[in-house]
Amino acid sequence: MVKNVQSFASNFTINDTTSAQNCLAVVEENSNIRSEPSSINDNSIVQTVSKDTKFEVTGKRTKRGWVQIKLDPTQTAWANSEIVKNNEQWVSCLRDKGIAIKIVDDNNLMAARPAPKPKLKSETNVSTSLSQESEQSETSKTLSVDKSTSTTPDKGGFKVVEQAKKKYESGDLQGAIALLKTITANPTAVKETTEMISQWQQDWSKAESLFKNLDTAFADGQWDKVLAYKDHPEKLPNIEYWRNKVEPLFKQAADNLAKQQLPQLGNPSNQNKSKLEHQNSNEEDELDMTDDFDNTETLELQETLESDL
After folding, report:
1. What's the average model confidence in pLDDT over 138-155?
2. How far, CA to CA in Å, does 91 sit from each of 102, 172, 189, 240?
3. Residue 124: inside a domain, yes or no?
4. Looking at the structure, do residues 273 and 196 belong to the same domain, yes or no?
5. What are phi and psi of 96, to 5 degrees?
6. Residue scoring higher pLDDT (304 or 238)
7. Does 1 reside within a domain?
8. 250 and 296, same domain (yes or no)
9. Is-contact 192 42, C-beta < 8 A?
10. One domain, residues 255 and 269
11. Does residue 114 surpass a pLDDT of 80?
């Protein structure tokens, strides 16, 4: 059964004093806040906001784009960055306060998720005509059947999801999707995996588009434009495969920009060229002086001969 906690927290409003002191994420209306950074399990929904709502951010976000927020001073939860309306603003707010954003691994957070408890049949399903002993016996059999039919698929499905995540992070999107489609234990499982596949495809398409823009800027030698993406981590891919592709571009662009900004005199080849030009200039001056001296001697000799005549 989906948890849909809509207490006073669903209309949670931050007062002006708190707004001035803390960095806030605005979660859009009709969105789910979850106890873990994953949408595969409906039981992880802890709150559904009925209108745009502000939450204080903790500074943590996952590789797949989940943002950790505070429901109250003691309880935290997660909101996907797709439902946060002001990602750039809260990131800039933390940066202005000197608070670094900590990127955490989704899988490590998911590992702590408790296994779902088997659903028990209601006692009303047991025939009232049975004796007390028969009721106890029937209930015991029902529990045994429920455990054998519900717990095993859940565990198996969780393992398949983990395998699919590894393929997804390593760059095998189609292989990951194919694995998720093998989970057909029940309609709920199919719905959850379908939702996950849709999210993965959207994230993959965005990451691929961003990488193409980066690669084009790099090929054109626009180092500043390449490095500008690095200053906005909220825009970078949350998929390990694409992060491993963009990081080398950032490093090479930074190196190229540093070389480009070095003064020309700092280049040894330019220094040698300057010395050679200076040496050639001195030799030409000496040659001119020698020519002038020779011309002077010739004129003096002509004047002497003319006087003797």
Report:
1. 42
2. 11, 30, 34, 21
3. no
4. no
5. -65, -30
6. 238
7. no
8. no
9. yes
10. no
11. no
Question: Residues 8-21: what's their mean pLDDT?
Answer: 43
How would residue 214 be classed by pLDDT, with cut points 50, 70 and 90? confident
Regarding whether 80 and 46 lie in a shared domain, the answer is yes
CA separation for the pair 278, 217 (Å, rounded) = 41
| Same domain flag for 25 and 105 | yes
Answer with the one of 239, 261, 283 that is the final residue of a domain: 261
Strands 66-72 and 53-62: antiparallel
Domain-embedded: residue 92: yes
241 contacts 170 by C-beta, under 8 angstroms: yes
Q: Give yes or no: residues 159 and 257 share one domain.
A: yes
Plot region of 41 (φ>0 → left; ψ -120 to 50 → alpha; else → beta): beta
pLDDT digits (tens, 9 = 90+) for 268-303: 555 555 555 556 555 555 555 555 545 555 555 566
Q: What pLDDT, on a 0 to 100 scale, did the predictor assign at position 187?
A: 80
On whether the CB atoms of residues 229 and 238 are closer than 8 A, the answer is no
Count of structural domains within the chain: 3
pTM of the full structure: 0.42
- In the chain, what is the straight-line distance between the N-terminal and C-terminal CA atoms, in Å? 134
- Within-domain flag for 135: no
Q: Which domain holds residue 172?
A: 144-261
